[in-house]
Amino acid sequence: MGLKGRLPTDIELLSELQILNLSFNKGLTGQLRALIGKLTKLVHLNLVGCSFFGPIPDAIGSLTKPSYLSLKNNSFSGPIPPSIGNLADLTFIDLSDNKLQGSIPVSNGTTLGLDKLLKARRFHFGNNQLSGPIPPRLFSSTMAMIHLLYDALWLIH
Q: 31, 78, 110, 134 - which has most CB atoms within 10 Å?
């Protein structure tokens, strides 16, 4: 659509919004603000191929219904927010082709992690700047996962 600029702060007023697909608008830039967490009826968040940068806000874990989350091919940096582990209905997660750093978060009793995404069938983490070993607790036999991409992800120790 050729959209340009930043997400307006009044996007939080779209309280009934279920699908937000702004993909392939290279002119969309700026940081994804914490107010994205106020879109509690959002089921589908697709921001592929835009020019967002900075950290993925921890408030993304405040979404209660998403089944699809794709932030692929932006310039998101910093760690993967452990709060994404709150997204219990998530079946697809794509964080690939960004500049994410650190390790993949797993829960440890006091913090959440992606190991809580039991319904997630597809995990895409490739082409980031993540580091450390793949956490053994990330996957379990109770997960619905059928597809995992982590190419060009990190050096395993």
A: 134
Give SS3 for 9: helix
Q: Which listed CATH number (3.80.10.10, 3.10.20.600, 3.40.50.150, 3.40.50.2300) goes with 9-147?
A: 3.80.10.10
CA atoms within 13 A on the CB side of 106: 11
- What are the C-alpha distances in Å from 70 to residues 21, 22, 98, 122? 9, 11, 11, 11
Cβ contacts of residue 17 below 8 Å, gap of 6+?
39, 41, 42
pTM score: 0.91
